[in-house]
Amino acid sequence: MKTEIIKVDPENIDEKIMKYCGEKIREGKLVCFPTETVYGLGANALDEKAIEGIFTAKGRPQDNPLIVHIAGYDMLDDIVKTTQREEILLRKLSDRFWPGPLTLIVTKDESMSDVVTSGLNTVGVRYPSNSIAQTLINYANVPIAAPSANISGKPSPTKASHVIQDLTGKVDIIIDGGPCQVGLESTVLDIVSWPPIILRPGAVTQEDISEVVIEVSEHGWQKEVDKPRSPGMKYKHYAPNAKITIYKGEESKVASRIKEELKNANNLGLNAFVLASEETLCYYNKEKALSLGSRYNPLEQASRLYDCLRKFDELKADVVFAEAIENKGVGDAIMNRLYRAAGGRLISI
Fold first, then answer.
1. What 3-state DSSP class applies to 106?
2. What are residue 248's phi and psi, to 5 degrees?
């Protein structure tokens, strides 16, 4: 398959190009596009054959449901069949957080393909704030199902170069719309359950949601599930080729342990690196450490996480020793992704 790579300026969108890309979606083609969270691999959510192409291109397990993206409330009619309670919650939450990085799990309409929802009776819906994403959906004039535009299990793409590396030859079009602002996948909130439950943390935090819905809980993200109701719940995700181990504890003790592990790895001939914060880089050889950003700026750390994980692949790292992030607010979402990337290897000191 020949892949077209098309550059689009989000501040000056070429409507002719976006119309062309929207037509390709309607034709059943695969189009990768930027959102505020990560790049998405999009297909017409109402075209089952096109949706199957997403799973093939990514190598994605069939039991991992997709999120459907809209650019207007009228598009919900083809996707959802909400109960009265769900409708009230959907309106309250969407009024506050849409367009934006929040996915809502609601009861699906019978017409929504089981391929999209992995056989579940629910579907995840999101209204992205990225201008290119909105324009693409509007020109396609159909809801777009889109997981992250990467090989399944690998770090999610926050730059077009990441998508080009993973999916060239596997998709029809890659829209290069610059870097993603948030850099982590959306928060997923299940409003079919009561009280509503966060299935995947993201930039919209539990504290944010609690301002709209007083009662909200969070699925323990260290737990495995047999049948995920949301992406990011079951499989090892976001992982570079290197084996990652996370260390949690007092700063000086963590740094001491990591330096000891670095020495051991070097003695074994392994190419070892550290994922640290800006404040703790001083503990390590800077040629062997990447900064996730300031620990006082979790949004910066979120936006840099996947880029750092992909950088370890470029550096041909064998092992990575990572400092844990304080898991509150957006830090909870960062730790969720890092924990998945590490395959659950978290050591408390």
1. strand
2. -125, 135
**pLDDT per residue over 217-253, tens digit each?**
887 766 666 666 667 665 567 889 999 999 999 999 9
Q: Decide: pTM greater than 0.90.
A: yes
Measure CA 76 to chain center. Answer: 22
pLDDT, one tens digit per residue, over 145-171 is 999 999 998 999 999 999 999 999 999
* Dihedral over Cα of 216, 221, 222, 223: its sign: positive
CA distance 259 to 148: 34
The token pair at 316 is 């041909």
Residue ranges in the chain assigned as alpha helix (H): 15-26, 48-58, 84-97, 114-117, 131-140, 160-167, 206-210, 251-267, 298-314, 330-341
- Do 28 and 193 contact (CB within 8 A), yes or no? no
Are the beta carbons of 276 and 289 closer than 8 angstroms?
yes
Give CA–CA dist 209/218, Å, rounded.
11
Token pair belonging to 217: 């809980």
Buried b (16+ CB within 10 A) or exposed e, 322-337: bbbbebebbbbbbbbb
Q: What is the 3-state secondary structure (H, E, C) of 126-194?
A: ECCCCHHHHHHHHHHCCCEECCECCCCCCCCCCCHHHHHHHHCCCCCEEEECCCCCCCCCCEEEECCCC
Domains of the chain: 4-218 (3.90.870.10), 243-348 (3.40.50.11030)
CA 62/CA 79 separation, integer angstroms: 19
Phi, psi of 220 (to 5 degrees): -65, 110
